[in-house]
Amino acid sequence: MRNRKSRAIDISRVQIEILEQSDTTLIIRWVEPGRCHYGEQRWRRRSANSSGTCVVSRRAIRRGDAVFRPAERPAPANAAAMISVEAFLATVEE
Question: Nearest-CA neighbor of 61 among 84, 91, 35, 87?
Fold first, then answer.
């Protein structure tokens, strides 16, 4: 059985495109060369259950911050990835 958490996400290589959006859901095209590709992946808004780094802004995320995370089951290879809601809203408003 393959351990999906054995390799950390290299956010410098991740390419994302937001295909659809609502207040609570994003549909994202995620490309991480050599690791995974999702053509249409659903992400849901929730509170971060751990600290991490936003894949859009590269800023720190603290536990409890509002984030979008992959909502697929079983957990995808990028299940630990997060997009800060604050960073996402800033890119939409630009």
Answer: 84
The answer to whether residue 1 sits within a structural domain is: no
Q: Is 2 exposed, middle or buried (0-12, 13-18, 19+ CB in 10 A)?
A: exposed
Q: Given a cut of 80, is residue 91 above it in pLDDT?
A: no
Query: Could you tell me if residue 16 is inside a domain?
Result: yes
d(CA 13, CA 3): 21
What is the DSSP pairing of strand 36-47 with strand 66-70? antiparallel
pTM, entire model? 0.84
Task: Give me the number of domains the chain comprises.
Answer: 1
